[in-house]
Amino acid sequence: MLIRIDQFKGTIPKLQTDKLPNPYGQVSINCDLDSGGLAGINQVKFTEALPAGSYGSLFQYNKLTTNFWVAYAEEAYFVKSPLANDQYDRVYISGIEQDISGHPNEGEKDIRVFSNDLIDGGAGTHDQDEDWYTCGVLAGTQPSLADGGGGSGASVTRAVTYTYVTSRGEEGPPAPPQTITVNESDDIDVTFQSLASVGMTADNHYDIEKVRVYFSFRGNTGLDTFNYVGEHTISSESDTGTIDIAANTTPGEALATTDYDPPPDGIDGLIQLPNGWVAGFVGNRIHVCVPYAPYAWPETYTRDLPYPIIGLGAIGTTIVAITTGFPYLVYGNTPDTLRDQKINNYFPGVAGKSIVSARNAVYYAGADGLIKVTQSGAMNATDGFLKKADWDGYVPSVFHSAYFDGAYIAFASVNSDGIAGFVLDENEETFFNLDVEREAVFVAENEAKMYVIQDNAGTPSVYEWRGETLDYLQYRFKSKKFMLPKLVNMSVARVHLDLEEIARLAALIGDNDDIIVANETILTNGGVQRNNPPTTEYTFGGIGDFPWNTYEFNGDPLTSLAAVAASLEVTFNLYADSELIFSKNVSTNKAFKLPKGYKSKRYEVELIGQVPVRSVDMATTMKELAS
Question: Is omega for the bond preceding 533 within 30 degrees of 0, making it cis?
Answer without folding.
Answer: yes
